[in-house]
Amino acid sequence: LVSIGNICRSPIAEAVFRKLVADEKLEHKWRTDSAAVSDWNVGRCPDSRALSCLRNHGIETAHKARQITKEDFQTFDHILCMDESNLRDLNRKSNQVKDCKAKIELLGTYDPQKQLIIEDPYYGNEKDFETVYEQCLRCCRAFLEKYH
């Protein structure tokens, strides 16, 4: 799960997907992580509003931001991102990777409500983080149903 800085959207999506997988007792079948296309926030915890939003839904995360690597393209089956800018960056990076096996697509592709883009809530408020959470929950649930 990839976003630009890996401190808002992608850690929310990662935590949501990890919880769905755990609830279905499928941890042995899935390796879940999130990353950034940029290196701006490497090593940082998720935004406090993202953590608060997750806690409000009974989800904890110990994620630290990291930048996507060549190995990610070679080892993950799916790389899901939040918006077109992420998608362009990931496709460009994947073209430089030999043996890229990851299917790269927008997480919003799986949204039953057809909201393709998960907007960055960084400059918004708590309500915007809740919107991201709800979108991620819908998309991750649909993705898991498709590939489980």
Automatic annotation (TrEMBL):
EC number: 3.1.3.2, 3.1.3.48
One Pfam short name: LMWPc
Record's subcellular location: Cytoplasm
Active-site residues, Swiss-Prot/TrEMBL: R9, D120
Entry GO CC: cytoplasm
SMART domains documented for this protein: LMWPc
Top-level division of the source organism's lineage: Eukaryota
Sorted UniProt keywords: Cytoplasm, Hydrolase, Protein phosphatase
Domain Phosphotyrosine protein phosphatase I stretches: 2-146
Entry keyword annotation includes Cytoplasm: yes
Catalytic reaction equation(s): O-phospho-L-tyrosyl-[protein] + H2O = L-tyrosyl-[protein] + phosphate; a phosphate monoester + H2O = an alcohol + phosphate
Molecular function, one GO term: non-membrane spanning protein tyrosine phosphatase activity
InterPro entries linked to this entry: LMW_PTPase, Ptyr_pPase, Ptyr_pPase_sf, Tyr_Pase_low_mol_wt_mml, Tyr_phospatase_low_mol_wt
Family affiliation: Belongs to the low molecular weight phosphotyrosine protein phosphatase family.
Job of this protein: Acts on tyrosine phosphorylated proteins, low-MW aryl phosphates and natural and synthetic acyl phosphates.
Descriptive protein name: Low molecular weight phosphotyrosine protein phosphatase
Species this protein is from: Struthidea cinerea
